[in-house]
What we know:
This protein has six helices and twelve strands. It has a single domain (45-179, 204-235), classed as Vaccinia Virus protein VP39 (Rossmann fold, 3-Layer(aba) Sandwich), CATH 3.40.50.150. The chain is globular and about 50 Å long. The protein is 23% helix and 29% strand.
Amino acid sequence: MTRDIFGMALIDFQKGNYSEDITTYSSLEEKDIIPLPYLFRDYDAMPLIEQKALDLCRGTVLDVGCGSGSHSLYLQNKGVDVTGLDESEGAVFTAKSRGVKNVVHSNIYDYSGTKFDTILLLMNGIGIAGQLNGLPFLLNHLEGLLNPGGQILVDSSDIIYMFEADDDGGYWIPDNGKYYGEVEFTMEYKGLKSVPFNWLYIDYSRLEQVAEQENLSCELFCEGTHYDYLARLGTQP
């Protein structure tokens, strides 16, 4: 067992050793593929939600879960003072190899000291909260990294569509006491598997509710084509 499956795959692609993609297995009994070339896309190949988020960035930016550095690179090339952050050592190596000047190898919860005008969590980066009860702690920590008047830009998805619909327009959701957006994943790459990890998909109304409880404003900026959305959170006046 090894943890940094994601980083291994990124390094292989960056070094020209691309031969397969990452496979993911989830507690929703779903098997999926993460195509490595997609993780190295440029601005023009990004979904509209990501493009809008990058266009909304202002001041100094912290790119949480920067991965291969695609978002950080775009901002850096536009003259933005951006810092990429990732707990994957392989991701940090890859982002630096691609030219991102400021990259920090850290878990977001262990990172402090520097404050930013914009904190960016794209590709459902808010999922690092793991579970719904971890979201207030994450938002509180992120707020502590903001300058006065700063903003947090997040995208996520309401995965209610993955559950069976009934004739009344409702959904059959397992009665297990968990929020339906809490998913456990395992990654596999070249025969190696990661340890299982929790990931959170949060519907907008629930995000808005938790944000308000943490005294953060929450604005639905735009919606995507498939239950996804971009939200902007900020400190209350």
